[in-house]
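In the current project phase, we have settled on a layout for protein records. One protein thus recorded is set out beneath this paragraph:
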Amino acid sequence: MPTVYVVGSEKRGTLHDVATVWKDGVATPLTDGSRYAWALSVAISGSDVYVAGTEYAGTAGLRIAMVWKNGVPTPLTDGSKDARALSVTISGRDVYVAGAEFGGTAPPLHLAIVWKNGVPAALPLTDVADDASAESVAVSGDDIYVAGGVESRTSFSRSSFLFDVAMFWKNGIATPLTRTDGTEEGWASSVLVKQH
C-alpha cells in the first residue's frame, strides 16, 4: 500500500497558520504557530521528506523562503527581503527549490530564483525590470527546468501597462509560453519532465 504525503497549513488552537505535513492523514506540524507559515510542496528521497514553504519573518510583513528536511527547518533567505519557496525536488543528493526573492527595487519587484542545496543556483532567472516567480522546478540529469511567470513591463515590449507572461526556463534560458506583446496573458504553475 502506498504512503501518501500532503502538505499545507492548519490552525489548531494557534493564532497563526501552521505549516504542516500529513503522512497517510496523520499531521506533523513544521512550525509552532508563533508566525504565519505555509508548506507548499513536498518531495521524497529514500526515507527523507523535504518540504518547501514560506514563513513570515515577524517584521514588516516580510516572508522567509524555507525548506524542511524531516521536520528540521533551513531558511533559504534571512528575512531582510521578502521571499517565498514554492516547489522542491530532489536529484541525487541535491535539493532544488524554486521561488522568488525581492529584488530591492520600488515598486516591489521579485526575482525568480532556484536554490540548489540552500544557495541560489547561478544567477536569478529574471532581472529587476519585472516582477517574477519560479513556481515549479524539475531536474533531469544535468538539466534544470523551471515553470513560472513574469509580470512584464519592459523585458519584452515597451508598453506602459503590465501583463503576465507564462515562462519556461531550461538551465536559465527563458522561453515565453504566451505572447509577449500584451495581447494575451498567462502564468505557468508546474513542470514535469518525462524520460524517454
Notes: The CA atoms of residues 86 and 164 lie 18 Å apart.
